[in-house]
């Protein structure tokens, strides 16, 4: 088992790739009472077209299938995995993003039983026409709930405007009509292809003894047969630089919302350099639009933005973008103000050297604080996106950044990025 | 053990090396009233963003950033009849940031923002006051765009009809907030500082002496213990119902029941297990029957508030399914009251509750809040004692709890067709 100590964090991460390809990470946390485990497949809502494992012809499955599969994994022929976890006192859950699906539990007792339950229920699919149809009503209600939520519409609507015609534009849960087409066979096919151990990782953090925990996992995996690992062939959408630059959405809201999306077209570095890129971008946006920025105060005092204003930098497999959003009395004024700040970014950043240390310290403090939370550590960990680096290297990376790095990275991103604006306005 | 710094002023320090941070809260507590809710939420909004020493958000943000991204927030809370204004801050432990000691700096910062607000002529600075009042009103309006929150608020108003403190949102009400002026609010704030019961809690790698010494500079004075007993026993009433239509895809069905069992009384732990079995967990009867078996909802759950003896149920459903879902909910209640549930499910619920309680020991915020609650009800219950009490609960006791549940209010937010 590989063992890596991170002195800046006071943490030691243990890792091993099993014979079947499953990547295992163990992080013991002294003083903690519970253990949190998350098993993740590199498969999300965007992975609709692919060549199934062992076949040669590509297929395209209905939008929302990864999320549907996540829901259906819990139900088995004679039991529900929720109940097995509850039997061992664990709470369990799952979530699906654009590029990943994760299954998790959290428990203060019976770690071995719960780990075995997790590995077994994720690796043992059971779908029938009847159980699949039953889920359509539940997910239908989930889709409608999010359709009524203006924040969700603002975010996913902007992503859709940034990537029109691509799988990213589809809602993670799909639509009522797309999920209606999903069959048990579709789910088996997706499971066979994407839930192979070589496409998955398991992160366990909290109260645990590394050697013993790894033994349990090894023993469980050694007793199962899997097809030979093969490189998954995803059919990527045709490259398109098309972006919908502006869209208005009417909803019965009390407050209007404005969202600006910036789609990155620059090529990203790999490994530690990618982590550095992300952190530099984050510091850059904080210097321009964060609470310490004079422009933030000016817009706040003018009532153009308020406390709801925020932004997110997102880097994922094959895409990266920045989303800025807030409630606004005048969404157009909001958008123009933000875009004009971004336009003059070089000069503004050069004048921000006196704030750089504060912003860097804040980023370090936020990263350290996230290591209090077992969930935050395990959910944010991604061993592929920045491989061989990971979020454990973040404090080191932030410490090494200079204002010049930030300006360079911001130029790299902003000069190639395409803008999309969306407003949610009161109306029907 | 909590230490009394002055009459009515308590400090509880919880030394632990489990976390990378040190967390501090300063709570000002008083028996609540509806106007006070509006006052306090506006104070929270103002004091979180300005003070004499840090007059703007940027000044305050820069100070916090230099303290390695220390967090700082002001918020309001309500437990039964008690209402609190909470100042909270979290800093990084010295040894992760090259030995910078932030503890005294944080305590001084807290003193400065609490005791030296941004004031002109014995009133909150008018420009800041007006801006934050406007922001708060905008925030209240945006809350109504969250339909789950909105439906719960409407139900609450029905259930606590005639009890304005409980019927009002924790975030106050728009009309009262509009009527508040900067000089009255400043005067009220001075009263709050001088008379409210104060609860200071610190958790992290610190020792009590150092904290108490730093706090000695605050000049904390004697005051009354304000909260005798926070429990509110709501009387039984006739069932109130209301239906409202809005242009929505999903409808929201919310029900409120009276369950006369109160926080940490003899049968409190039985009520917790009952709630876990009824709708408080993903293995509950509501989740199994409304969602899993009948595919009627994505969420269908219950919550129990022991400070007011209230059981709340909420479900997001199709507009045509109101009657079906209501009946299903009622059937689950009847089934529990007849003891119609398996030992296996009962044991799963108990195990889930124990897991949730023990897991809160891993949250610094939960530790701090537990300490405040212990003091509020003047009774300490450790996680171990809590677990022992939950383990003693029997299926027959849970059935008996279900028989005490009385429906009191139904609110239905009906989604109209969007055509």
- Overall mean pLDDT of chain A stands at 96
- Count every beta strand of chain B, where a strand is a DSSP E run of 2 or more residues: 13
Oligomer: heterodimer
Structural class of chain A: alpha+beta
Your description of this structure?
The complex is a heterodimer of chains A (428) and B (419). Chain A has 428 residues and is an alpha+beta fold. Chain A has two domains: 2-234, 2-Layer Sandwich (Cytochrome Bc1 Complex, Chain A, domain 1); 246-426, Cytochrome Bc1 Complex, Chain A, domain 1. In chain A, 42% of the residues lie in helices and 21% in strands. Chain A contains 16 helices and 15 strands. Chain A has helices at residues 65-72, 81-87, 111-123, 129-147, 150-162, 176-180, 184-194, 210-222, 272-289, 294-301, 331-343, 345-350, 353-370, 374-380, 394-400, 403-416; strands at residues 2-6, 11-17, 23-28, 35-41, 49-51, 59-60, 91-96, 101-107, 200-206, 233-234, 246-251, 257-263, 310-316, 319-327, 418-426. In chain A, the strands form three sheets. Chain A has a seven-stranded mixed beta sheet, sandwiched between helices. Chain A has a five-stranded mixed beta sheet with strand order 11-15-12-14-13, with helices on both faces. In chain A, helix 1 crosses helix 7, helix 3 packs parallel to helix 8 and helix 13 runs antiparallel to helix 15 (394-400). The longest helix of chain A has 19 residues, at 129-147. Chain A is globular, with a radius of gyration of 23 Å. The model of chain A has no long low-confidence stretch (mean pLDDT 96). In chain B, strand 1 and strand 2 form a beta hairpin. In chain B, helix 10 (268-280) crosses helix 13 (343-359). Chain B has a six-stranded mixed beta sheet, with helices on both faces. The N and C termini of chain B lie far apart (62 Å). Chain B folds into two domains: 3-218, 2-Layer Sandwich (Cytochrome Bc1 Complex, Chain A, domain 1); 240-415, Cytochrome Bc1 Complex, Chain A, domain 1 (2-Layer Sandwich), CATH 3.30.830. Chain B is globular. The model of chain B has no long low-confidence stretch (mean pLDDT 96). By secondary structure, chain B is α+β, with helices and mostly antiparallel strands. Chain B has helices at residues 34-47, 57-66, 103-115, 126-143, 147-159, 164-167, 174-179, 182-195, 208-215, 268-280, 285-293, 322-337, 343-359, 364-376, 383-392, 395-402, and strands spanning 3-6, 9-15, 21-31, 71-79, 82-92, 119-120, 123-124, 197-204, 240-246, 251-258, 300-305, 310-317, 406-415. Chain B contains 16 helices and 13 strands. Chains A and B meet through helix 2, helix 4, helix 10 and helix 13 of A and helix 2, strand 5, helix 4 and helix 13 of B. Chain B: Pfam families: Peptidase_M16_C. Chain B: InterPro entries: Metalloenz_LuxS/M16, MPP/UQCRC_Complex, Peptidase_M16_C. Chain B: Residues 182-353 form the Peptidase M16 C-terminal domain. Chain B: GO terms for molecular function: metal ion binding. Chain B: This is Insulinase family protein. Chain A: Residues 62-174 form the Peptidase M16 N-terminal domain.
């Amino acid at each position: 088992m590989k063992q890596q100590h991170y002195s800046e964090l006071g943490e030691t991460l243990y890792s091993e790739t099993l014979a079947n390809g499953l990547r295992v990470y163990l992080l013991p946390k002294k003083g903690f009472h519970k253990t949190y485990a998350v098993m993740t497949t590199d498969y999300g809502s965007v992975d609709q077209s692919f060549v199934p494992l062992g076949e040669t012809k590509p297929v395209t499955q209905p939008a929302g299938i990864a999320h549907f599969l996540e829901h259906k994994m819990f139900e088995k022929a004679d039991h529900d995995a929720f109940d097995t976890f509850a039997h061992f006192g664990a709470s369990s859950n799952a979530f699906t993003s654009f590029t990943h699906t994760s299954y998790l539990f959290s428990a203060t007792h019976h770690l071995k039983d719960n780990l075995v339950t997790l590995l077994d229920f994720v690796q043992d699919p059971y779908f029938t026409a009847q159980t699949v149809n039953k889920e359509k009503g539940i997910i239908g209600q989930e889709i409608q709930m999010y359709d009524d939520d203006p924040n969700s519409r603002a975010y996913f609507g902007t992503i859709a405007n940034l990537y029109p015609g691509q799988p990213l534009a589809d809602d993670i849960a799909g639509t009522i009509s797309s999920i209606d087409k999903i069959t048990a066979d579709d789910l088996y096919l997706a499971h066979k292809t994407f839930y192979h151990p070589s496409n998955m990782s398991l992160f366990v953090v909290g109260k645990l003894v590394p050697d013993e925990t790894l033994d349990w996992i090894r023993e469980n995996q050694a007793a199962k047969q899997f097809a030979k690992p093969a490189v998954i062939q995803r059919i990527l959408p045709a490259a398109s630089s098309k972006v919908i630059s502006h869209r208005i959405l009417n909803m019965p809201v009390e407050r209007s919302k404005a969202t600006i999306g910036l789609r990155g077209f620059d090529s990203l570095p790999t490994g530690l350099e990618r982590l550095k890129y992300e952190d530099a971008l984050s510091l850059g946006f904080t210097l321009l639009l964060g609470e310490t920025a004079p422009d933030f105060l000016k817009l706040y005092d003018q009532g153009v933005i308020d406390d709801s204003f925020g932004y997110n930098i997102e880097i994922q497999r094959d895409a990266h973008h920045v989303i800025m959003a807030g409630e606004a009395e005048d969404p157009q004024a909001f958008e123009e103000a933000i875009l004009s700040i971004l336009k003059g970014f070089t000069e503004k950043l050069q004048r921000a050297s006196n704030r750089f240390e504060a912003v860097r310290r804040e980023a370090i403090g936020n990263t350290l604080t996230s290591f209090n939370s077992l969930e935050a550590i395990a959910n944010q960990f991604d061993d592929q996106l920045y491989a061989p680096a990971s979020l454990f290297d973040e404090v080191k990376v932030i410490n090494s950044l200079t204002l010049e790095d930030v300006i360079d990275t911001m130029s790299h991103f902003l000069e190639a990025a395409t803008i999309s604006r969306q407003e949610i306005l009161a109306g029907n | 053990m909590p230490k009394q710094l002055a009459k009515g002023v308590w400090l509880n320090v919880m030394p632990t090396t489990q976390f990378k941070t040190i967390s501090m809260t300063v709570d000002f507590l008083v028996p609540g009233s509806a106007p006070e809710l509006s006052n306090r939420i506006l104070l929270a909004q103002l004091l979180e963003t300005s003070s004499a020493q840090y007059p703007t958000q940027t000044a305050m943000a820069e100070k916090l950033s230099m303290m390695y991204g220390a967090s700082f927030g002001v918020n309001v809370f309500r437990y039964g009849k008690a209402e609190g204004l909470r100042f909270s801050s979290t800093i990084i432990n010295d040894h992760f940031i090259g030995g910078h000691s932030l503890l005294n700096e944080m305590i001084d910062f807290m003193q400065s923002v609490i005791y030296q607000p941004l004031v002109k002529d014995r009133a909150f600075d008018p420009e800041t006051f007006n801006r934050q009042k406007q922001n708060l009103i905008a925030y209240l309006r945006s809350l109504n765009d969250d339909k789950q929150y909105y439906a719960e608020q409407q139900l609450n108003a029905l259930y606590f009809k005639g009890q304005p403190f409980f019927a009002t949102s924790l975030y106050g009400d728009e009309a009262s907030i509009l009527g508040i002026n900067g000089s009255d609010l400043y005067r009220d704030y001075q009263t709050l500082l001088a008379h409210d019961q104060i609860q200071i809690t610190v958790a992290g790698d610190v020792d009590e002496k150092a904290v108490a010494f730093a706090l000695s500079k605050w000049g904390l004075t004697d005051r009354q213990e304000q909260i005798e007993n926070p429990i509110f026993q709501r009387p039984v009433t006739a069932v109130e119902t209301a239906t409202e239509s809005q242009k929505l895809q999903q409808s929201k069905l919310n029900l409120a029941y009276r369950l006369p069992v109160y926080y940490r009384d003899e049968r409190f732990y039985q009520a917790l297990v009952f709630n876990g079995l009824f709708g408080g967990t993903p293995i509950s009867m509501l989740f199994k029957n409304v969602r899993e078996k009948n595919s009627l909802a994505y969420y269908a759950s219950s919550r129990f508030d022991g400070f007011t003896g209230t059981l709340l149920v909420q479900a997001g459903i199709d507009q045509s399914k109101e009657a079906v879902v209501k009946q299903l909910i009622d059937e689950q209640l009847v089934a529990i009251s007849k003891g119609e549930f398996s030992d296996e499910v009962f044991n799963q619920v108990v195990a889930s509750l124990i897991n949730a309680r023990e897991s809160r020991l891993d949250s610094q915020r939960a530790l701090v809040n537990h300490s405040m609650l212990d003091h509020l009800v003047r009774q300490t219950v450790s996680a171990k004692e809590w677990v022992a009490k939950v383990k003693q609960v029997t299926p027959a006791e849970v059935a008996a709890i279900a028989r005490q549940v009385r429906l009191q209010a139904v609110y239905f937010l009906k989604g109209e067709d969007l055509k």
